Amino acid sequence: MLQILRFKFGTIKQFKLPDLGEKIKEATLVKWYVKEGDKVKEFDTIADVSTDKMFTQIPCLYTGTIHKRFHKESELCQIGELFLEIDCEDYKTQKIDISPSQIKTQEPIITKLPSKIQQLQRIAPSARIRALQRNLDLSTIKGTGIYGTVTKYDVINHKEHTRQEQPNNNIKISQQKQMTNQQKEIYKNVTISKQIPHLYLDEEVDLTQINNLLAGSNYRDYTGIFIKTISQSLLKFPILNSSYYGQNKYEILNNRQHNMRIYLENSIDHYVQDVQNLSIKQIEEQISKLYQQIIFYRSSNTQQQQETISVYNFGQQQGTFYSPLIKSPQIIAIGIGRQQLVPRLFGSGMKPRNIVNVSIGADHRVVDGATVTRFTQQWKKYLEQPELMILNLK
Asked: pLDDT at residue 317 above 90?
């Protein structure tokens, strides 16, 4: 006969504050979700932290018991500094011979199961996006999808239901609140941008040829094509890829790398470096990878390397015209609107064409209107004649 004895021992794991992005050396602890003695599982949220560029949640890397916390809320923490200690429980088993009489007299061990078992919440990616837009807590929303998945319709209906339940007599006329870190960053950038004398050029671009070229494929996002053709055009007009810091009035910095900050839906931005050396597919893969990190891990793309161009592609939000603000020390900013099927005079008559509106904002202290116009026409030529774009790919 055999009896299995189970020996339990613990290992203290040190959890350090993880890297939150390029050039971020410290973060402020906003809120603890656990206290000493609490049980945690891997990937459970343990704390909220913020920097001057982002706000994110810190997931747990181990399963065990919180042994010690090393920081208090509102305290400044250094990246790589000891954040907390977790007692991780391990087990060993050993087999020992016992007699049959001992087995008969041994009392059964009854393990009491907890009344409530916490389950992982299934959330659709589209539901995460809408919850972030509306600043909703997904844990308060009951899912109606398969296996209880929270869908985008659950988020929309939850928002409408909440509004209907609010009585009119409890609505406050005004409420003072602090800006979020993202709003503070926007405020700072816009304030600086308003000091730049902007020169704007608006243009229509016909994407019918590209649509015909891609007909029958599953490719429907033109962001990679826009970014690559901008880079190709900058090779002919390198002055637009320069930086002007304003410290020395008559000096500009020529940048060889095409480092682009791309703003898409929901104010989500992506940083793509060395665009001049990337293919369209590589650009799309980088953007997709960054997008997944932001949506699923609730982190921000905080790479703050020397970005030389800002591109605002808000056509996905059904915006037609957009006048972008230049982000200092950059020279230009590019706004891209939505694609529309509209009648245009083509050949011998009116035909439906796929038109997109673009807008170029330039720093008039550094470049003149003629240079911006030639750049725009070169970019437009690559988009309207994709064979030229293909021939000039590197």
From this structure: no
Residue 335: what pLDDT? 92
- Copy the structure tokens of residue 106: 């041994």
pLDDT at 109: 44
For residues 6 and 162, give the distance between their C-alpha atoms in angstroms, rounded to a whole number: 51
Measuring CA to CA, how many Å separate 126 from each of 151, 190, 237, 288, 376? Answer: 7, 29, 39, 15, 35
Give how far Cα 207 sits from Cα of 123, 201, 283, 384, Å.
Answer: 36, 19, 20, 6
Tokens describing residue 343: 């009648």
Give the β-pairing of 64-69 and 82-97: antiparallel
E strands, the chain, are: 2-16, 26-32, 39-40, 45-50, 55-59, 64-69, 76-78, 82-97, 198-206, 260-263, 269-272, 309-313, 332-346, 349-363
Q: Cα–Cα–Cα angle for 203, 209, 210, nearest 5°? A: 85
> Is 241 buried (19+), middle (13-18) or exposed (0-12) by CB count in 10 A?
buried
- Work out the widest C-alpha separation in the chain, in whole angstroms: 103
Strand, coil or helix: what is 356? strand
Quickly state the pLDDT bin for 363 (edges 50, 70, 90): very high
| Mean pLDDT within 105-120 | 44
pLDDT in tens, 122-180: 788 778 878 887 788 888 888 888 778 888 888 888 855 555 545 555 555 677 888 88
